[in-house]
Amino acid sequence: MNDRPEGLAGVGHVNCSGQTALITGSTNGIGRAAALALGRLGADVVVHGRDVDAGESVVDELETIGAEATFVPADFTDIDAVRELARTVREETDGLDYLFNNAGGYFRTGRLTDQGVEYTFHINHIAPYQLTADLIDHLTDDACIVTTSSAAHRGVSLDLDRVETVESYSSMRAYSHSKLANILFSRELARRVAAQGRSIRSNSVHPGAIPGTDFSRFLPRPLPALVSALDVVPGITSVADGAAELLYAALSPEATAVTGQYFAKQSTRTPSRAARNDDAARRLWERSATLLDIDEPLAEVGESVNPPSE
């Protein structure tokens, strides 16, 4: 195994040998960087994405540094493909120690998936909800689930009337709404897992404003291309630093001691008031199961998870 990865404050000491991680959306960007970092820490890595060539390239990189890796393709606009991804992971691994719900999308034009759900909400929330439901019993006793959210969740509240329509569509609002759903999902998952007496942790994370991801998508053209071409921009997070945020929310001493929390800048943070609404989290969980026409995962609800104080 090569030298341990640089830039992973708080987690570079962790030994992940013998552990397995699935990172969705790991053929590029922060997902790819996180996959490579986990490989250097000793983990076996399941790479996911839509592009087979890109996925196999990441697997080659991981194998070059001495890590065990496999690639499983799946299009998150297709719920059957998500279910097949989960089935393949269950068949090809003995268990999962880390599930990073990192894949996401942003769409300037409103449209619905074949399931009749708005695209952004489907890819960013419904798909990871289904994947987590299908893998929850494949997770090890002390596993951790990290869901990639964003500071963009602020300024919106949960509106379940809008998840099956593109009327008056706003790309920015749709993205922000999906990122709010990520935090609510992560909190409700933490509560329900705890109610079953399992020690699985569930946290969400804002990885920073990263060129090519949520930051540049909100900029008028041609600024996204300009930002992506620059190495350093004030207030912008590098891909490597964004990946470090994901790993911090799973591996750091702070993260291993908590569940149901929201991380940013390598610390627990207080998300918006809407993201701390436990009733909204329950309603989101129930509506998600209805949209997927499945029984509610982890049906028993436990006590509320308290966020850090204001």
UniProtKB/TrEMBL annotation:
What UniProt keywords are attached to this protein's entry?
A: Oxidoreductase
Please give one Pfam family short name: adh_short
Q: Has UniProt tagged this entry with the keyword Oxidoreductase?
A: yes
Select a single GO molecular function from the record's annotations and give it. Answer: oxidoreductase activity
Taxonomically, the superkingdom here is Archaea
Keyword Oxidoreductase listed = yes
Coiled-coil intervals: none
Q: What is this protein called?
A: Daunorubicin C-13 ketoreductase
Question: What is the species listed in this Swiss-Prot or TrEMBL entry?
Answer: Natronobacterium lacisalsi AJ5
